[in-house]
Amino acid sequence: MDRMKQKVSWFQTPTGAMTAILIMYLIMVPGKMIPGLMFHSPLLEADAWHQTSDILTAILILLGVQVGNSGKTKEHIWGKSGIEPFISLGIGLSLGFLALYEIGLKSVFGIILVVSPGSLEQIKVIPFLPIPELVVMETTPRLISALVMGVSALVLFRMSRFQIGVGKKYARRLIEDDGEETASDGRLDALAFAGILLQVFIPSFGWIEYLCGLGMAWLMLGTAKGIVTDAWKKINHAALDAETTEFISGIVNRHPGILGFTVQSYWIATCMVVEIKAIRPRLTEGLKDVRQALTEQIGTFLEERGHKEYRVRVRFEEQPFHEDRVAYLISERNGREIVGGTVSDLMRVLICDRRDSTIFRGREEETTPEEIGALLLEKRIGSFNVFCLNDVDLRMFEDCLDGTKIPVVQAPSFRLNIVGIRNSDALAA
């Protein structure tokens, strides 16, 4: 495992990935802003300003990753990943603001000015409006702009996949969210590339750039909505879970027959949802009554806490099977097979797979006292079961397994049927 960790590049860690994204945006912003100002392209300018905010976002995420890595201490009260939903919320809100103000409004006013150039003076009366420049570009500047946007789209798509991969590998939702935002940037640049290229082939379609801007704004709003919704659910879940889990756990603990459980609480719109996953023994009866009782008691608690809309979900899962593999010494006494004997009888063993102490598969293996240890290690045996009449024989078997750490267990009986072996031949694989 240590060797595997040493081979991982620093850029494939959360900190390294976000540093790479920061460097990418530091190169892209001047690469788009300069030609955007030179050619008066609203798409290039808007995208440059948009990615200027991405630089700040990348810096915030880097800080969030460092705080998240530190764990919950007096210096870092948010603890691991506790601050990440808030940064994700900021990413989504800033993305939505840029979509509406910097790109959406500018595109709308661009279309208005194309349809009615005389309305420019009336629009300028309103302060703080992003009014685009009405300058018709020549073919060469458009080709340069298309090249910039095309290369940018390819780079953003590649980096978004890289970001999302690192986020999933290290379970950092914040980096995944920013990867989705990077992919959204790539879709915007691809749309802008298509729009500018269309202007090159059809110069009279100069206004198409503003329609592409509206499409960009729409895509950005969709991405922003997904990020904000997910972050808001996480923030609410963190606040509610701390208030409800302890009391609800006490309610569940009072019900017999539940071996273990988990409790989750979160919001769906204005409805609070409490999910309980309980582990029960197999073939347990009366689950319907237990589910109804839990639902009523938790519902009463939520109503007392002022929750008018709530939903309680109780799901039962069967206790998982306990499987192991053991070996039994099989020897003959008076013409019949028994479990047990002495070391001199150690010529064959029965390797059995058990599920909840019930044998469901077995196979005989020939062996000797000298080879028994290596055989049981090879077969990954958990214990060697033998019925011994005295402690001396038991210690002799332990000497045969010395160094293997496989325990020698006293079988409950020398009879195969009592131990659970019906017939060694019938259990043969």
Task: Briefly summarize what is shown.
By secondary structure, this protein is an alpha/beta fold. Helices cover 57% and strands 16% of the residues.
Could you characterize what this model shows?
The protein is built from twelve helices and nine strands. It has 429 residues and is an alpha/beta fold. The chain folds into three domains: 2-231, Alpha-lytic protease prodomain-like, CATH 1.20.1510; 254-318, Alpha-Beta Plaits (2-Layer Sandwich), CATH 3.30.70; 323-419, 2-Layer Sandwich (Nucleotidyltransferase, domain 5). Strand 4 and strand 5 (336-339) form a beta hairpin.
* CATH fold assignment of the largest domain: Alpha-lytic protease prodomain-like
SSE ordering: HHHHHHHHEEHEEEEEHEHEH
Estimate the helix proportion, in percent: 55-70%
* Net shape: elongated
Number of strands: 9
Determine the N-to-C terminus distance.
35 Å
Total helix count?
Answer: 12
- Low-confidence parts: 1-6, 71-81, 424-429
In CATH terms, what is the architecture of the largest domain? Up-down Bundle
CATH class assignment of the largest domain: Mainly Alpha
Label the structural class.
Answer: alpha/beta
- Computed over alpha carbons, the radius of gyration is 34 Å
What oligomeric assembly is this protein in? single chain
Subcellular location: Membrane
GO cellular component, one term: membrane
Protein name: Cation efflux protein
Domain Cation efflux protein transmembrane: 19-228
